[in-house]
Amino acid sequence: MRKLVLLGGGYGNMRILLRLLPNNFPEDTTITLVDRTPHHSLKTEFYALAAGTTTDKDVRVDFPEHERLQLVYGEITKIDRDEKAVYLEDGQTIAYDDLVIGLGCEDNYHNVPGAEENTLSIQTIAKSRSTFEELLGLSPGSVVGIVGAGLSGIELASELRESRSDLKIKLFDRSPRILRDFPEKLSNYVKEWFVKNDVDVIANSNITKVEPNKLYNHEDVINVDAVVWTAGVQPVKIVRDMDVQKDRKGRPLVNQYFQLVDDENVSVVGDCASSDLPASAQLAEEQAERIVKVLKHRFKNEPLPEKMPEIKLKGFMGSLGKKQGFVHLADTTVTGRIARLMKSGLLWMYKRQNNG
């Protein structure tokens, strides 16, 4: 039997499963999915879990079932390309013929002293649960610092404001304005929401050190009761440690088929794959669509297409609590209630599609 092994149950590998199951892969092929948790976690919604406005059950869906799909749960310790095997912490060894690495990312602390030790995270469902417990256990009037005003930071700050109106929230943004790479109309809308809802946005910030209950922004020392880090990501350590060609962010370089440049048996999808496009669930799914096409050719021993279609992202969506949001699609910006409904609708469709 030919063995297709998928590492990580994120957006990319879920799209691969959706396209191959139930009968779009050969009878002589088995699929093994390896993940540390028994469900697909909706990472784009972890901010709401951490803020306490969404339950754990609402940010996950079950993995699909199939007689030739094996689900293996555990922590991966090594990827051995010479032996074509994956090793798990519990001693299991999983052999592969074709491997897709979709292990995602973790926080990038940019060598800021104390950041890793003294901040909370929303990068995994387990860390988001811990962040929820910490934030919701704070006493009234506590100060929460959120470092990083990208989409995750913006959504967390707004959702936490909705969950805990008694907290003082400070959102630290390296840029002169929120979402500086997008239309000013969008930036102004988000900024006005924060002003109206008493979230303190600190622009042009540079966090140089984090100590227990202290944030150092340039020369200022800011007292805080909790800090959540949303200031950038990097591939998980097992991917960073792989002996492959990488880009400056530590992500494995891939060819147009999303294979490692020196290994056609190994593909990389999602946040840990090198790309000029911003990391997102949408990008992971588009990469997965192309990997599926390549796999189908490989299953049939057919030559690969000379040129793969270019990935063009449609845009992005963000929420400001449960009632307001913003959408940027095809150079068009939508804000307010309609934008929030669009995001909620997309999430509903995704869960329905992946729950079969």
Please give a structural write-up:
This protein is an alpha/beta fold. The protein folds into two domains: 2-36 and 74-106 and 233-299, FAD/NAD(P)-binding domain (3-Layer(bba) Sandwich), CATH 3.50.50.60; 109-231, FAD/NAD(P)-binding domain (3-Layer(bba) Sandwich). The chain has nine helices and 23 strands. A six-stranded mixed β-sheet has the order 5-2-1-9-20-19, with no helix packed on it. Helix 1 crosses helix 8. It is globular and about 60 Å long. The mean pLDDT is 96.
Q: Tell me what portion of residues adopts beta-strand conformation.
A: 25-35%
The CATH architecture designation of the largest domain is 3-Layer(bba) Sandwich
Q: With helices defined by DSSP (H or I, 4 residues minimum), what is the helix count?
A: 9
Task: Give a short account of the largest sheet.
Answer: 6 strands, mixed
Distance between the termini: 27 Å
- Can you say what the CATH homologous superfamily of the largest domain is? FAD/NAD(P)-binding domain
How many strands?
A: 23
> What is the C-alpha radius of gyration, as a whole number of Å?
21 Å
Quick overview:
By secondary structure, the chain is an alpha/beta fold. It is 28% helix and 28% strand. It has helices at 11-20, 46-51, 115-118, 125-136, 151-163, 184-196, 237-240, 281-299, 337-354; strands at residues 2-7, 29-35, 40-41, 60-61, 69-73, 76-80, 85-88, 93-95, 98-101, 105-107, 143-147, 168-172, 199-202, 207-211, 214-217, 220-223, 226-229, 233-235, 259-260, 263-268, 315-320, 324-329, 332-335.
